[in-house]
Amino acid sequence: MLSSINAINIKNIASTIILGVFLLYGINNYFFERNFYFNEILSLIGFIFFLTKVIKIIDKKIHFYFFLNFLEKMWLMFLLLGICHLIFSWNIKTNLYYYLRNSVIVYSCFSFWIGYYLLENFKVFFYKIRYYFLAYSAIALCFQLFLWIDRYALSVFFPWFFINKKLTNIKKNILFIFYVVYAILYPSSTTPFVAAGLALILFSPNFKVFSAIFTLILVGFISFMVYFSPNMAKNKEGGDCCLYGNLAIVKDSHPVFAIDLNATWRTIVWYKAITEELPHHLLGKGFGTPMFAYNNNMLTTYYVGMHADYGKHKPEYETHVSGLHNTYLTLVLRLGMPYLLIFFATYFYIFRNFYKNKIVYGQQGQIPIFLGFFAISIIGLFNLSLESPIYASLYWVSMGFVAKVISQAHNEPNKNIKLPTSNNA
Predict the structure, then answer these.
(1) How many whole angstroms separate alpha carbon 398 and alpha carbon 371?
(2) Are 126 and 26 spatial neighbours (Cβ–Cβ below 8 Å)?
(3) Do the beta carbons of residue 78 and residue 342 sit within 8 Å?
(4) Cβ-contact 414, 68 below 8 angstroms
(5) Are 18 and 148 in contact (CB under 8 A)?
(6) Enclosing H/E stretch for 38
(7) The whole model's pTM is what?
(8) What is the DSSP track for 60-116?
(9) How does pLDDT run across 33-66, given as a tens digit for each residue?
(10) How many angstroms separate the CA atoms of 157 and 162, rounded?
């Protein structure tokens, strides 16, 4: 009896440490990831959880694939796709360093299992520290202590402030006040998009309405890219000097490109990736390979002063590591069109399930779990995420939380596989 109690206590302490690492990694990766490699620690822990699952399945003598629910199958397909590219990229990589830097796309996905197994623990953990989290965020934002917090990641944790509570209209308004204050005190063009995206998701009455609005937004974006493609194509005019082409001439070609130079750079990079690279790499460019052709004399600065400034990184590093600042487009280019199928299947399943069970999830106080995952998903539309150790585990753990909620709702057989629960936390 005493040994059983001790085992439970050890599990509780271990899970608290793991979740503490995850939270610190999320809100201040500038310090914890860059100095202590928290993403790699979380990935290793997730791998151990995965091995635990595999062992349990073997013990039950059940076919592994059929034992998994849909999101777990999508995760497995992603892992296998990544492993294939790790193998096939070995002989085409530029060097081992860039190969290992790109491999974060694969190994970080194991963090998924931390979210899957420790959901109940994180509910209890965050509920206990929610006011401390809010106070820390308020102090860091009000005093402009930007090295204390990440530019975007607080967006992932704000919804958790209302975990296990029904998200009433008052609580929704409070949540969006958090985002408004966040956007004002820590200026970033990404944060308003997160708030707008979550508002669309929350206030869409059903999956059909959400799908219709999302389709209109997608069509609008595609129309923009097609309409302004002649302007963006100007990046080639005298652009041999620069990794991303002649951005200055594009900026001057139409007033819309002078509104936000950062957005202009992103748009041109996406255009170049889609029109110049993707058609030739439908099965993916792999790992350790350059996103764009380069030479060591190229400039890498994004916009103003590009003819005089080499930018933060040299062209070789930039084209191998920096990505396209749209994590999903980066993965399509690196992993090929098969990833696009996994991506659409995953999000279609999650959104359809969310709206189908929205009332139930609301009554159970589970909505914040989905909002946290949607927040990091929206961040990935404009930044590095899955391809960077800064955000990769934040994404995968959040997806693991969602996968566990859906598994519980569907009463999947594997819900009986439990590590420490909230009752033991």
Answers:
(1) 10
(2) no
(3) yes
(4) yes
(5) no
(6) helix 38-60
(7) 0.94
(8) HT--HHHHS-HHHHHHHHHHHHHHHHHHHTTTT-S-HHHHHHHTHHHHGGGGHHHHH
(9) 999 999 999 999 999 999 998 888 877 766 666 6
(10) 10
